[in-house]
Design brief:
single chain; alpha+beta; 7-stranded antiparallel beta sheet; 7 strands; globular
């Protein structure tokens, strides 16, 4: 887990997402600082967020892709969505004040995130 060193690169991707529409580069730097933003890299098949785990931040996909998986009581998994840059994950659950993730986020292609 590394601190975000190149915020200009992250900003270039983030500004493509409607959530960051109208956010200036200087405001983005301030936001990243307030959120203690970090970049992370994951390999194919790695789990970024496990269903039932604590939610504390949203994730911005910078590269690669992930799948959002929901399991039922019998353990059957359904892919709800696939995401790639500049999409977000976890934002709906954070805004809904959920403390635990109802889904698993798994890497499909080697990926880099900012959260």
């Amino acid at each position: 887990m590394a601190r975000v060193d190149d915020l200009s690169q992250v900003y270039a991707i983030a500004r493509q997402n409607p959530l960051y529409d109208g956010v200036s580069p200087s405001d983005f730097v301030k936001m990243a600082g307030c959120m203690n933003a970090r970049t992370r890299r994951y390999g194919k098949g790695q789990v970024v967020l496990l269903s039932g785990s604590h939610l504390s931040q949203i994730g911005l996909v910078l590269s690669g892709s992930v799948k959002i998986i929901k399991e039922d009581e019998e353990g059957n998994a359904s892919i709800l969505s696939t995401l790639s840059a500049p999409e977000l994950f976890g934002e709906v659950f954070i805004c809904a004040d959920l403390l635990a993730s109802p889904v698993t986020v798994e890497v499909m292609e080697p990926a880099r995130f900012c959260s």
